[in-house]
Design goal:
Length: about 130
């Protein structure tokens, strides 16, 4: 806990004298948020994780946009996926069928590579494991 030259506790973010509870660390929510955001920005791994999560969510949104609301299957091309900003390097898991086909998933949306750069886009059913 920071203290100023009068010996009173000071806000960790702005240095103002704290009033109120003895265990108080920040003068308000703004200072608390700024302090925590600054701590997170210093950690390079936080940025890496944030970027990966953003790529996964972007991939999910692209796959979701290709499926009509009531449909669980649709076909598309590699070109269209790339044009929509899909990044093939990011996925959450792979499901292999008994026949050996591999579905690549971003959360609950996935794709199955077909011949000639075509893909089958699928939505995982809620009752599937």
């Amino acid at each position: 806990m920071l203290t100023n030259n009068t010996g009173k506790k000071a806000c960790l973010a702005c240095g103002n004298i704290l009033k109120g509870r003895a265990d108080k660390k920040f003068c308000n929510d703004y200072c608390r948020n700024n302090y925590n955001n600054l701590q997170k920005s210093k950690d390079n791994y936080s940025n890496i994780i944030r970027n990966i999560n953003n790529a996964l969510l972007k991939n999910r949104k692209v796959l979701q946009s290709l499926l009509p609301t009531q449909e669980d299957l649709a076909k598309t091309t590699r070109e269209k996926l790339l044009r929509l900003g899909f990044h093939f390097g990011y996925l959450t898991h792979i499901y292999t069928t008994k026949a050996g086909k591999q579905y690549f998933y971003c959360y609950d949306y996935g794709y199955l590579p077909l011949d000639n750069d075509w893909f089958l886009v699928v939505r995982k059913k809620e009752d599937e494991g």
